Amino acid sequence: MKQVVLLLLCLSWRVSLAQLKVNSNHRSFQDEKGKPFFWMGDTAWELAHRLDRQETETYLETRRRQGFNVIQVVALPFANEVDNKKPNRYGDFPFVNDNPDQLAITPGNNPNDAAQYDYWDHVDFVIQTAARKGLYIALSPVWGDHVSPHWSPKGVIFNEQNARSYGKYWGSRYANQWNIIWVLGGDCPLVYEKDKRHYDDRPVWRAMAAGIEEGEGAKHHLMTFHPKGGKSSSEYFQQDNWLDFNAFQSSHGARGTDAWNWVTRDLALKPTKPTLDMEPCYEDHPVNPWDGKWTRQRGYFNAYDIRTRLYRSVFAGMSGFTYGHHQVWQFLDTTRFIPLSVGDTIIGWKQALHAEATGQIQYLKQLMLSRPYFSRVSDQSLIRSVKGTDYRDLVMAARDSAGTYIMVYLPQRAPVTVDVTTIPGSQKQAWWFDPRTGKAIPDRSGRFTGVVTFTPPSQPSALATDWVLVIDDAARKYPFPK
């Protein structure tokens, strides 16, 4: 009897975690029960290729405990990296002779039998293990360098015909797998010139999207496109029905990238679709290591860089965020792999799993879900003091369209003046939320109206440079922002 009850509870839990949908506001995600889903993703691009089963368990369990709910993975190894001709950890390749029409699939899937356990069985294991832990897999069936000759033609193996059949196979294979989100593309341009020739790779990706939808049949997992750095999927596929939400890549080129403005731009387009920074600056990634001038003085992106970009982008209307650590996405293990960038800090991936920002960014998800979610809108008119001009000082505000709360992100500890009249209730409660610790400190409560100036606390630490001001309608009796 106990086993039957346990099975029913497990099935009920899986149903509650079923396929995601776009909310009717066209800016957010929800689960099948209509509850808010705030995307907190991690880039684990090489997970299916570089880790074995035990390491996969370690990685996914760590990220689950840290509050992540989406893991971004590529099914194939990158074509233009050092892994181009390397098998996965079990000595297996995905295709026969690099031919996408001939998947290297063997009968059975017993991991203790090398003749049975093939490359795709291991991809299944990654997805199913994530499902057991309540995690979604944002799965890229193929990275862009297998489609686009932009970087190099050596790894290009897809065209419109085999892209569609490949997509159809995987759409069918995972049609009933609740925790799949499809991510086409992968860090390559779509329309460009190379060697005096014009390229337009959009037909290949559209064919793959059509194949996935055909394979899924009546099922429909969310689908998006991961573009090259500095671009958004909206620039290429905004009118395509298969594109459920937009993704952009603010990338690793500069601390000053104004990703929040990209959010505003995407949300202003028609039809309105949620948008997401699917690859912002990675923690411990060298700042722009590609120009040949990188030095350690230019440095690396740190936890503060991560927070300031993500908080302002979410307050601008983003539907969640993706985090990345430069040693984790590639699963750096110098006994097996060569670091990919000049200046890489040689931090093993297991140690990097616990980098500073990984303990902090979960507080952003918790903060957003602590107040009414679907009615949140960005509103810079609330700020009546100096708003700032760039990544170093720009203050960003959001509010509840129903008038129950205001949130203001401050990248520096400085007074801010806010118009609180959008909260009609006479009794209000103000808090200071620390993005480093997730702790909330009461500021004031009672009757205050009009334009009010607030000053962040000087405690608990001089390191607490950035703050979030939260102002509630006291009648709502919202809990501590956390």
From TrEMBL:
Species of provenance: Spirosoma foliorum
GO molecular function, one term: hydrolase activity
Entry keywords, A to Z: Hydrolase, Signal
All residue ranges annotated as the Putative collagen-binding domain in the record: 377-472
The keyword Signal is assigned to this record: yes
Stretch forming the signal peptide: 1-18
Protein name: Glycoside hydrolase family 140 protein
UniProt cross-references to Gene3D superfamilies, sorted A to Z: Glycosidases (3.20.20.80)
Domain Apiosidase-like catalytic residue range list: 24-374
Family annotation (InterPro entries): Apiosidase-like_cat_dom, Collagen-bd_put, GH
